[in-house]
Structure formats: structure tokens, C-alpha cells
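# nightly structure sweep
# worker-07 picked up a monomer target from the shared queue
# config: single-sequence mode, recycle default, output format = C-alpha cells
# input follows
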Amino acid sequence: MHKLENEISKLTADILSDYEAGRDIDNINTFDQPKKDVIIEIINKLRNIIFPGFFKNGTYRIYTVRNNTTMLLEDVLFNLIRQISIVLRYKPEFENRDEADISDEAERLAISFLATIPKIREYVDTDVQAAFDGDPAAFNKDEIIFSYPGLFAVMVNRIAHELYLLNIPLIPRIMTEYAHSITGIDIHPGAQIGKYFFIDHGTGIVIGETTVIGDNVKIYQGVTLGALSTRGGQKLKSQKRHPTIEDNVTIYSGASILGGETVVGKNVVVGGNAFITKSIPDGAKVSIKNQELRYNYDTANPIQRAELEQDESWFYVI
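# output follows
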């Protein structure tokens, strides 16, 4: 035991010495850090508010809509003010402000955010409808609300986007990365998404910060709405780097649409695995040119080749 204690003491000294190298990872802030578990709990309570009849809080002995909503709002407001107070210090203008000023600003921002809940619910309601209308496998809307990862990821994004619009640091990204970690759907909180948005299946979807998506858009797994190049790094901050997707567009699995100047027009259908870096006019149907399939049954049979014709029905097989 004595030997192990000596080893631990030596390792501690080595690591403490390593902390003195002056790198970014060595920074120990003098103020609190945001609490990820608290932010996740805020998401869960906001989901209870958005869907009052679906995700009830079982810890309350007496359940009425008014009492439940009041208690949830009080919990969210208290914790959100605290977390916003912490992250505001990441903004240069708040580095040297006193606690009272920061607390007042955090309270203002938290209340401004909570005032957007009816708007968030309006948009989420259209997302539920779009999922039901767009998925013949959906048994009913309850199934969508309880189980569809796409709806959860979009709901979290709609919450985070309102916080992003209030210029609150860190918290929006923590929220969307939490949704990313459990759904495989990566939507930056800066992305602007219209009504009736449906993500089917969802795994592997990436939607970048400056993406703009119109109404009645449907996308499938593996779709990337990304930047054409990231070599510019921080020099590209605040520039339009991601595409604009206009109304009534369907984008099938594996498609990549890249670039801030790329606009996919209204009523466009983008076939699977398409790679797009230029704008697409309204009403177009985009697909990969005939693919070649190779068949090799056994060594006694030569390789056979056949072209896969991409007819009208090809777009709609998922």
C-alpha cells in the first residue's frame, strides 16, 4: 500500500507540473463552468412543457396542467438563469462585470427565451404533422412523439436556436450536441429551419450553422448540408458557408449539398448519394448518372455488368 501511495504522489506531482505548460487545455477558469447535466435536465423539462400530456413529471403528487406548468417553468427559469450567468463570462463585455449586472442580464435573457415557447410549440407541432404525413410506417402521432429520433433532434434544435438568437454562449451547442450524441443527428443551433420539417431515419445527418431550410422539407439519413471548404477556419466565421434549401424539397440518403452560395430551389428532389456544389433550379430532379453493378456468382462464372437505370420510382425507394 505504501508503494502505491508513493506512486500516486509522484503521478500527481507530474500531472500538476504538466498543468503549468500554458496550453489551452491547462486553463483553469476562475469562474464556474456550465453544468452539462443541468442543461440536459432543462431540455427534459422543456420537453414536458412542449408536450404536456406525453412526458409528465412523476415526482409531483398532485397533477394539474396549471400546477405542473408553473413548477416546470420555475425550475427551468431558476436553472437557466444560473447557467446563463456562468456562460456570459465567456463574452468579453462581461469579463469584468459584477455579479449583480450579470445576474440581471441572465434573468432578462432567460425570460426572453421562455417567451418563445409558444413559437417553439407551433413549429414542433408542424414537425409532428410532417413526420406523420411523410412516413407510411408511422402508426400514429403518439409513436412519433415518443420514439422518433428525428423529431427529438429537431425539437432540441428549435429550443437551442432561440437561445442562439439571444447570443447566449455555449448552452445552445451543448444542447444540440447532446441530441447529436443520442440520435446521430448533428444540427448546429444556428441553422434556420422552417415549418413542417421531417427527418426520416436520421443517423449521420449533418446540418451546418448557416444553413437555411424552408417549409415542407424532408431529408433522409446520411445527408450533409455542409460547407464547401473548411480550410479557412476561423477566417470564415460569420460568413454564409452552408446551403439554402427552399420549400418543398426532398433530399434522399447520402446526398451532400455544400457551399454558402448553393441554393436548392423549390420542389426539388435530390436523389441518394448526389454531390452538389452548385445551385439547382426550381422543380429539378437530381440524380447520379447510371450506376454500374457487378455480379460475380462463383469462379466458374465470369463477372457480369449491368447498368442501374434511375427511373422515376428510384427516388422514392427507402
